[in-house]
């Protein structure tokens, strides 16, 4: 059965973000099809999508390659997120459903519990789920999609230090949810803007001052995202 291009796209994107493919390295259709166990057709479609998203560029005589973002481009992403996440929170206060609130409150409870225990790895995942759910609660597919792309790119370009005070960070998450639950869009916007600004200071550019990798298609680490599996055939 034909594997959907979006599944291949997700796998390649995740591996780019994880550093499986270095910046500037070539992405040949044959290599990718073999690595993910699919035909070249979904790979070709996935590369077009990833090029539109900015993860891949097409170079003359080289074909598809992992993009090499500049420090300015990386900085712009953080600035965009600082503008859009507060907007998403404000929209969520106006459009959220009870289902969104239930998930957000559950994540806050877990986050606060893990923060008290000092489980930093759990907190990273919970934080990602929280902000993804908050974006979905905005009721705007375009905004949700844009914020998701920003999160992927920022995770690719930046290493993030754990919050100095995770309990305080999750208290801010709780404040955002309270404002969203009350329908107070301005309060939700304000707390989210403060939270995002504080989080931004913990980002450290991964490639600052480092040259890009040479164009070697074989220079990849083991992928953690096989695509041609039974779970994706439903």
Automatic annotation (TrEMBL):
CDD domains: WHTH_GntR
Polar residues: compositionally biased ranges: 223-234
Domain HTH gntR-type, chain residue ranges per copy: 2-69
Region (Disordered): 208-234
UniProtKB keywords: DNA-binding, Transcription, Transcription regulation
InterPro entries to which the protein is assigned, alphabetical: GntR_C, TF_FadR/GntR_C, Tscrpt_reg_HTH_GntR, WH-like_DNA-bd_sf, WH_DNA-bd_sf
Pfam families assigned: FCD, GntR
TM ranges: none
Protein name: GntR family transcriptional regulator
Organism (species): Streptomyces ossamyceticus
């Amino acid at each position: 059965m034909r594997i959907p291009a979006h599944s291949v796209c997700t796998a390649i994107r995740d591996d780019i973000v994880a550093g499986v493919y270095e910046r500037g390295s070539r992405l040949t259709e044959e290599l990718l099809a073999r690595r993910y166990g699919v035909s070249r057709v979904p790979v070709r479609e996935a590369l077009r999508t990833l090029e539109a998203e900015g993860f891949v560029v097409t170079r003359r005589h080289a074909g598809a390659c992992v993009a090499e973002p500049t420090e300015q481009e990386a900085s712009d992403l953080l600035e965009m997120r600082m503008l859009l996440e507060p907007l998403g929170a404000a929209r969520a206060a106006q459009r959220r459903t009870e289902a969104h609130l239930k998930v957000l409150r559950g994540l806050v409870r877990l986050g606060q519990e893990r923060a008290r225990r000092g489980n930093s790895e759990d907190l990273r995942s919970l934080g990602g789920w929280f902000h993804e759910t908050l974006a979905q609660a905005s009721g705007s597919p375009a905004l949700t999609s844009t914020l998701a792309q920003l999160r992927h790119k920022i995770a690719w370009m930046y290493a993030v230090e754990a919050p100095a005070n995770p309990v305080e960070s999750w208290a801010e998450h709780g404040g955002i949810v309270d404002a969203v639950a009350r329908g107070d869009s301005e309060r939700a916007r304000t707390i989210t803007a403060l939270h995002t600004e504080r989080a931004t200071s913990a980002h450290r550019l991964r490639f600052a001052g480092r040259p890009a990798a040479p164009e070697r298609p074989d220079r990849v680490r083991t992928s953690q995202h096989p695509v041609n599996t039974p779970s994706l055939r439903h």
